[in-house]
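Lab manual, section 2.4: Encoding a predicted structure.

Procedure: take the sequence of the chain (290 residues), apply the prediction step described in section 2.3, and record the output as structure tokens. A sample record is shown.
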Amino acid sequence: MVETLSKYIGQIRKRWGLRAPRQLYRMLKLHQTAFDTILENMFATLEEVSGLFTFPIVASIAKMKPELVRLIESEGHEVASHGYNHVRYPTISAHARRQDLLRSLQVFKKIGIEISGFRAPYDNYTDDMPELLEQTNLIWDGGFGYRPEHRERTHFFHVEIDGQESNVSYIPLNMWSDDYMIDRKGMEPKIISRVLKREMTKIAPTEGVIMFDLHPIRMGQKKYVGCFKEVIEHANSIGGWCTTPTEAVKYWNTHSKWKGDSKFCLLLTGDIDNWVFSDYLRRVLWRRRG
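Recorded output:
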């Protein structure tokens, strides 16, 4: 356990540098709120404004509390794959990437959850990832679109594989994530809501789609959860449709427009990497056991 803790602290230090101790403290503090409560906070707020949310979940975490995964689906929200281990895909082999993704889909199948979408951990992709995704039955990806060359897109897009257009629809991912706004910029809830509303207002005239990555561990806290209500109310006021990526992709691919003649589509997503703080440590062990 000491060795594992040392490795985790080393990873945090590598990513956050001198800010590592502060980031470690932040996560410890956030996990003082039980994840059941975090989900309840989100469900209650989203229900007030008829908003839907999508949770890409690490499969090794999902199988520890399958009842919470099923609860998400039963509340009408979507579950997506976030891989089996929370590992940076460019740091492992092509075979390991394939095994990680397929293993995650097997876990969700055993839990009884149908998976249609994927986001790689840390939004880290290799150039060959679209080929791997094409071998699955997934219909959307919500992380490849975070690459700088795709980030400014306003609509779903496809990539070329062996001279043909991919079946998987790729979704541009907005840069304004919760960790960027809260941990790096120190934004308070009012400012977060203002930024997200500003980004939606910019996308609305394009009749396109905007996707945010807003991790439940932060945004489901009592302090921040109200942002969802403000954001969705604003989206509704300017003609937006807040749904899940699966419903959005299927509807757009069939009709080439948004449901109810909405002006644009809002996709609220947020990855679940851990249920409790100790899962961060277990994550290192899973990775080592491969």
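Check your result against the sample. Residues 35 and 275 are 6 Å apart (CA to CA).
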